[in-house]
TrEMBL record, chains A, B:
Protein name: NADPH-dependent F420 reductase
Domain of life the protein comes from: Bacteria
Entry keyword set: Oxidoreductase
InterPro entries: NAD(P)-bd_dom_sf, NpdG, P5C_Rdtase_cat_N, STEAP_metalloreductase
A Pfam family it matches: F420_oxidored
Lineage: Bacteria, Bacillati, Actinomycetota, Actinomycetes, Streptosporangiales
Organism: Nonomuraea corallina
Location of the Pyrroline-5-carboxylate reductase catalytic N-terminal domain: 8-106
């Protein structure tokens, strides 16, 4: 399996729960993590909160998104879908040549729950690939529960992370990265043209969570 | 859990592998199963093949799709996507008032593998609901492996069946039906507007099968 132990991981939108949860788990695994935000101050607050509250602070630093994009070896995009395209367009030079892991779920919400939003490019991941032609875009980490990632009582996370992309070395790297979270397997899940349904499945998982009062994830059987 | 032991299950397109596999498992669970096809002769051949080859023949009978739709209590739609809409339109009178379980995956295939087809109504299940306004349409059984269902060596199937629909009694019934297959759980997976991604996820499962040489399925964790 690919060695990812020396990587510095940047997380754009790392002050949100999903980004912060991933930051915590990667820092616990010994990686250096850079939390990005529009505001360097809020990014540093999020980094500090992981140190104080969750025992993962030493390796976590906060900075503006552009600084994080420039300094990290591999960049995770955990921003809200609204603003996703604009942010990535603005960071294309910093992200060139890097693996960019999109974990954005384009969802709408109404009284009946969550539903998938149509995306002109096909999916958030394909939108990232379209605006970052010089990056290696991978889709992954869509179904992680931020609550579970942030919960110090949860040592092992019961989840397979589907990893999609066109570039075998890049998907192998992200599978290995997912595997650093105890309990998690990174599983190759196909090409980016099949990313929409993986992103959209988060709406179904939210329905499961409501019906069963759970923090559901998925596992792939027979592998 | 809903009692489904007295139901007669009809399977439209039951001569295909997916339909035949489900027929086998429901017959083994003691249900009466009607296999439907355009040709009554081919339907009866499929029914006979289950009896001779797989020990499940006593409760399986073949007939034309229209006869099956009329006589069954609950009807599973396991036809190819091509022709799906036309067939259901033609059977709307026979299917009125019944639970109709759509397990059709609208997929295309090319050199790069499988991909999801766009469906005007949103998904195959929503297309069924549109042409069957007097039926109770449920989406389920998308990710079953026909090979596994038909394999006498596989006693327990390692799979959760996501069950989607608008009608609680109908989804409860189909969850119970899924639960008749040893190892399988029927899990509520949301409303029909979120069916597209469940159907389309079959393309990802095909990618998993190719990469890992598996007959992959999914499990939902934390429930």
């Amino acid at each position: 399996m690919t060695d990812v132990s020396g990587l510095t991981i940047g997380i754009l939108g790392g002050t949100g729960d999903q980004g912060k949860g991933l930051a915590r788990r990667f820092a616990l695994a010994g990686l250096k993590v850079l939390i990005g935000s529009r505001s360097a101050g809020r990014a540093q607050e999020a980094a500090d909160s992981l140190g104080a509250g969750a025992g993962a602070g030493a390796g976590v630093v906060g900075a503006e998104n552009a600084v994080v994009a420039a300094e990290a070896d591999l960049v995770i995009v955990a921003v809200p879908y609204d603003g996703h395209k604009t942010l990535l367009e603005s960071l294309a030079p910093q992200l060139a040549g890097k693996i960019v892991v999109d974990c954005v779920n384009p969802l709408g919400f109404d009284k009946k729950g969550a539903y998938a939003l149509a995306v002109e490019e096909g999916s958030a991941a394909q939108q990232a690939a379209a605006v970052l032609p010089d990056s290696r875009v991978v889709a992954a980490f869509h179904h992680v529960s931020a609550v579970v990632l942030l919960d110090p009582a949860v040592e092992k996370v019961d989840l397979d992370v589907l990893v999609l992309g066109e570039d075998r070395e890049a998907t192998d790297t992200v599978q290995a990265l997912a595997g650093l979270i105890p309990g998690v397997r990174g599983v190759y899940g196909g090409r980016l043209r099949n990313a929409f349904q993986v992103e959209a499945l988060t709406a179904n998982i939210i329905s499961v969570n409501r019906r069963y009062k759970a923090h559901a994830g998925i596992r792939i059987t027979d592998i």
